[in-house]
Design goal:
single chain, 138 residues, alpha+beta, Nucleoside Triphosphate Pyrophosphohydrolase, 4-stranded mixed β-sheet, 4-stranded antiparallel β-sheet, 38% strand
Length: 138
């Protein structure tokens, strides 16, 4: 979904389990392929943020999700598009599986700064590293 200015609305899940955060690596021939990210995706027209994130996590990782509070909203202009990212606290049921062939891993907060993330994720990574944002246990 895009807003009235053509900004692409994206929802991303911040899932923590045993002190590690769930991250996935974007697959080939996609925008920012090869970068690590918090799982999620673009909202469809008339889709609520919660429904978007539930759908994306089921399609990409085969897990049911309970969508929690928003941690951060940020907007970033790439050369070819502008995205508005909504990072939400999420609890998942079961073990995530890479249904699209993507790489997945559970990374410590310290690991995040050593992984190659898109610029739009930098503010969240800094928050997670320095402020110790508390996330629900899954």
């Amino acid at each position: 979904m895009s807003d009235e200015r053509g900004v692409i609305v994206v929802l991303a899940a911040v899932v923590e389990r045993d002190g590690r955060l769930l991250v996935t690596r974007r697959v080939g021939r996609t925008h920012l392929s090869g970068y690590w990210e918090f799982p999620g995706g673009k909202c469809e027209p008339d889709e609520t943020p919660e429904a978007c994130l539930e759908r994306e996590l089921l399609e990409e990782l085969g897990v049911a999700a309970r969508i929690g509070d928003e941690i951060l909203t940020t907007e970033h202009a790439y050369p070819d598009r502008t995205v508005r990212l909504h990072f939400r606290r999420v609890e998942v049921d079961g073990e995530p599986r890479p249904l699209l062939g993507q790489e997945i891993r559970w990374a410590s907060r310290d690991d995040l700064e050593h992984l190659h993330f898109p610029e739009a994720d930098r503010e969240l990574i800094a928050m997670l590293k320095t402020s110790g944002v508390d996330l629900p246990k899954t």
